[in-house]
């Protein structure tokens, strides 16, 4: 019953977000998707579905290519990857959701959404320098998590499908914080997986929780982001168009891929992008229409 309700809610939220996105883009004459963003969305969401993540890799490419100003990055990540993540969540809920404690699943989703709604106003009002600094630090953390994954330093996890009350309170509280950080472009997947595994949950069952938390919070925050001045909707639409089919292919057709060396490559490029962002923040460099100088 819980899974059915979540799937219906996801569909309604996804449709509503699509209507708002396209309506706002039409008013701004930004309905033509950026071709490069389509390819970016396809690649990042394909590997996101396999566990690589999409926020750090998207940020790195956007920074290298100067596709948008640095202050646009949080909105671009959350709005651009919203619809592909909705699709990813639906797939994980159908495949694995029935095995997860419904109270834990629903509570983590609700906490992440509430946290993100608090984070969005902070991002919209934050200075460019602050956004650069936070996203730069987030990339350093992401690179460290990629390296830890390759070195088998993540917790093994347990076999539980739910958590006792005390551990559940911890999980819900942390997902509230992670939801707020998502608004700044800090990915939720790796921290959520580590936390739930440490608390004893079967790591495979963390995927519907992680994906669904993001799938609900990203469109929820996206309503505000798409109407802000710090976003290019051509990029957002392109990422969504490329990301949705790539997510389906990765989830349904690709059973297993050797991605260790890919992760090491991601570590290198993400570290370089973090260096560029932090250098800009330290030097107080403003973001221009083409990106940070």
What does this structure look like?
The chain is 73% helix and 1% strand. By secondary structure, it is mainly alpha-helical. It has one domain (2-286). A hairpin with a 2-residue loop joins strand 1 (287-288) and strand 2. The radius of gyration is 18 Å and the shape is globular. The relative contact order is 0.23. Residues 286-293 have low confidence and may be disordered.
Keywords:
disordered C terminus; mainly alpha; 2 strands; 1% strand; globular
Topology summary:
Layout: H1 2-27, H2 35-49, H3 55-65, H4 73-80, H5 82-95, H6 102-125, H7 128-150, H8 165-182, H9 189-198, H10 203-225, H11 233-252, H12 260-282, E1 287-288, E2 291-292
Antiparallel strand pairs: 1-2
N- to C-terminal distance: 52 Å
* Helix coverage percent: over 70%
Please trace the helix and strand order, writing H or E for each element: HHHHHHHHHHHHEE
Task: Report Rg.
Answer: 18 Å
Shape descriptor: globular
């Amino acid at each position: 019953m819980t899974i059915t309700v979540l799937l219906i809610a996801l569909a309604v939220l996804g449709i509503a977000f699509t209507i708002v996105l396209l309506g706002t883009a039409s008013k701004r004459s930004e309905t033509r998707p950026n071709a490069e963003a389509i390819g970016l969305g396809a690649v990042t969401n394909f590997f996101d579905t396999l566990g690589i993540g999409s926020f750090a890799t998207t940020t790195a490419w956007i920074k290298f290519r100067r596709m948008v100003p640095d202050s646009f990055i949080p909105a671009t990540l959350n709005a651009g990857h919203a619809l592909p993540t909705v699709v990813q969540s639906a797939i994980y809920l159908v495949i694995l959701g029935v095995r997860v404690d419904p109270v834990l699943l629903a509570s983590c989703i609700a906490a992440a959404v509430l946290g993100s709604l608090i984070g969005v106003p902070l991002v919209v009002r934050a200075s460019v320098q602050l956004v650069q600094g936070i996203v730069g630090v987030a990339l350093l953390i992401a690179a460290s998590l990629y390296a830890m994954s390759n070195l088998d330093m993540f917790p093994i996890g347990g076999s539980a499908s739910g958590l006792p009350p005390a551990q559940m309170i911890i999980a819900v509280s942390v997902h509230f914080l992670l939801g707020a950080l998502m608004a700044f472009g800090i990915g939720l997947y790796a921290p959520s997986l580590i936390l739930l595994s440490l608390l004893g949950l079967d790591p495979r069952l963390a995927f519907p929780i992680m994906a669904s938390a993001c799938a609900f919070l990203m469109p929820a925050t996206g309503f505000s982001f798409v109407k802000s001045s710090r976003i290019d909707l051509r990029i957002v639409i392109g990422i969504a168009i490329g990301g949705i089919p790539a997510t389906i292919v990765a989830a349904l057709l690709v059973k297993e891929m050797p991605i260790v060396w890919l992760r090491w490559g991601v570590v290198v490029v993400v570290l370089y992008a973090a260096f560029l962002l932090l250098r800009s923040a330290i030097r107080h460099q403003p973001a221009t229409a083409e990106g940070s100088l």
